[in-house]
TrEMBL record:
<dbReference type="InterPro" id="IPR031167">
    <property type="entry name" value="G_OBG"/>
</dbReference>
<feature type="binding site">
    <location>
        <begin position="313"/>
        <end position="315"/>
    </location>
    <ligand>
        <name>GTP</name>
    </ligand>
</feature>
<dbReference type="InterPro" id="IPR006073">
    <property type="entry name" value="GTP-bd"/>
</dbReference>
<dbReference type="Pfam" id="PF01018">
    <property type="entry name" value="GTP1_OBG"/>
</dbReference>
<keyword id="KW-0342">GTP-binding</keyword>
<dbReference type="InterPro" id="IPR036346">
    <property type="entry name" value="GTP-bd_prot_GTP1/OBG_C_sf"/>
</dbReference>
<dbReference type="InterPro" id="IPR015349">
    <property type="entry name" value="OCT_dom"/>
</dbReference>
<dbReference type="GO" id="GO:0000287">
    <property type="term" value="F:magnesium ion binding"/>
</dbReference>
<dbReference type="InterPro" id="IPR006169">
    <property type="entry name" value="GTP1_OBG_dom"/>
</dbReference>
<dbReference type="GO" id="GO:0003924">
    <property type="term" value="F:GTPase activity"/>
</dbReference>
<feature type="binding site">
    <location>
        <begin position="165"/>
        <end position="172"/>
    </location>
    <ligand>
        <name>GTP</name>
    </ligand>
</feature>
<dbReference type="InterPro" id="IPR027417">
    <property type="entry name" value="P-loop_NTPase"/>
</dbReference>
<protein>
    <recommendedName>
        <fullName>GTPase Obg</fullName>
        <ecNumber>3.6.5.-</ecNumber>
    </recommendedName>
</protein>
<dbReference type="InterPro" id="IPR045086">
    <property type="entry name" value="OBG_GTPase"/>
</dbReference>
<feature type="binding site">
    <location>
        <position position="192"/>
    </location>
    <ligand>
        <name>Mg(2+)</name>
    </ligand>
</feature>
<comment type="function">
    <text>An essential GTPase which binds GTP, GDP and possibly (p)ppGpp with moderate affinity, with high nucleotide exchange rates and a fairly low GTP hydrolysis rate. Plays a role in control of the cell cycle, stress response, ribosome biogenesis and in those bacteria that undergo differentiation, in morphogenesis control.</text>
</comment>
<feature type="domain" description="Obg">
    <location>
        <begin position="1"/>
        <end position="158"/>
    </location>
</feature>
Length: 426
């Protein structure tokens, strides 16, 4: 089965932690700090690969994690950066945030390679914290965490012209007639389970890309059958060709079929009906009009006077040339660039100030905990005057002191943070 929708988890690499160490060499009894920096975490990169035309590979592998950066080492050694993870996708893949549905990136047009998630920055070693008054800092900064999220991949076919219609009306036969495409052709519903693309070339070097889009059914715009999977491919096409069985070989009414297809397109996205549309009345070689009956071609023209109509036969080739030149004439007056969906969200990265914390009261003791506090204490030397001043400024700048006051703290009350206790005075 054709796969054009997949949900996967992606995560960039964590930055390596900075290292704490001191120079220890013969005849150097009081060597300074020499802890190195951690390496950068690997990025998650999406790249268009022309050898792919489905998202089938993502049915088997659903988790993609880049390498973490290595921690720093002694003697100012820098940790190695984590390797980037490159995820190959077919052109036309739209990457959405699974939770909100917003577009993160569209791998179309000039977007051939994009960094979707950046790796965390490496932490700095203790060699960076040495000062004239603090010559032996015993702390380093940890690496920043990577970013993880679920994304949904959607493949939207890139073509100038889309053939739409119910199953078995002859779309695949038409495409095989006008291009080098070799779609499967058989007489059963949902013959086409995946879009087929063909290039229609003309003698003067002009041409266009035509897509045989899978057959629609009523209710497709509401997700019936494979409706959503099929309709999303119409979004990039510039011209829609309604292929109908004018001979009603399976008992279908061609006029009613066009109405139904237009109804499904309008329910899915009303803007689709503003695009140029053509009716290709197929199977004219099988039309048999009884005496007193109206010719189905005349009925179609009367029902849709604003839509160009081309009687054709996919079997004999009659009318095909006129149809393709009619399509080309419409495209000549249109902008032919690829429709690229604009990003709808910017991925935010967790900084130290974004990490959560909690304030709880235990009698006269106010307990402040959480990743934000724990991380700050991890690289702050509270035994030094400079480190303690940094700690106080952190509490003020981050709004923690203000929240403690809202919680009712009074002068002389105790604040506890991961084994450290302080008396509060305003």
């Amino acid at each position: 089965m054709f796969t054009d929708n997949a949900k996967i988890f992606i995560q960039s690499g964590k930055g390596g932690d900075g290292h704490v160490s001191f120079r220890r060499e013969l005849y150097v009894p009081a060597g300074g700090p020499d802890g190195g920096d951690g390496g950068r975490g690997g990025d998650i990169i999406f790249e268009v690969y022309d050898g792919l035309n489905t998202l089938a590979d993502f049915r088997h592998v659903r988790k993609y994690v880049a390498e973490n950066g290595e921690p720093g080492g002694k003697k100012r050694c820098h940790g190695a950066d984590g390797k980037d993870l490159v995820i190959r996708v077919p052109e036309g893949t739209v990457i959405r945030d699974d939770e909100s549905g917003k577009v993160i990136a569209d791998m179309s047009g000039e977007n051939r390679r994009l960094v979707v998630l950046r790796g965390g920055r490496g932490g700095v070693g203790n060699m960076h914290f040495a000062t004239a008054t603090m010559q032996a800092p015993n702390y380093a900064k940890p690496g920043q965490p990577g970013k993880g999220m679920f994304v949904r991949l959607e493949l939207k076919v890139i073509a100038d012209v889309g053939l739409v219609g119910f199953p078995n009306v002859g779309k695949s036969t038409l495409l095989s007639r006008v291009s080098n495409a070799k779609p499967e052709i058989a007489n059963y519903h949902f013959t086409t389970l995946r879009p087929h693309l063909g290039v229609v070339d003309f003698d003067d070097g002009e041409g266009f890309v035509m897509a045989d889009l899978p057959g629609l059914i009523e209710g497709a715009s509401e997700g019936v059958g494979l409706g959503y999977d099929f309709l999303r491919h119409v979004e990039r096409t510039k011209v829609l060709v309604h292929v109908v069985d004018a001979a009603s070989t399976e008992g279908r009414d061609p006029v009613e079929d066009v109405h139904r297809i237009r109804h499904e397109l309008e329910k899915y996205d009303p803007a689709l009906l503003t695009r140029p549309q053509i009716i290709a009345a197929n199977k004219i070689d099988s039309i048999q009009v009884e005496e007193g009956e109206e010719n189905p071609i005349d009925r179609l023209r009367a029902a849709f006077p604003d839509l160009p109509l081309y009687p054709i036969s996919g079997v004999t080739g009659e009318g095909i040339r006129a149809l393709t030149y009619g399509i080309l004439e419409i495209l000549r007056n249109m902008k032919r660039g690829v429709t690229v969906f604009e990003p709808e969200m910017e991925i935010s990265y967790l900084s130290d100030r974004d990490l959560p914390y909690t304030i709880e009261r235990d009698g006269d003791v106010f307990v402040v905990e959480g990743p934000r506090i724990e991380k700050m204490l991890g690289y702050t030397n509270l035994e030094s005057e400079k480190g303690f001043n940094f700690f106080q400024n952190f509490l003020k700048d981050s709004g923690i002191l203000e929240e403690l006051e809202h919680a009712g703290i009074q002068d002389g009350d105790t604040v506890r943070m991961y084994g450290h206790e302080f008396d509060y005075y305003k």
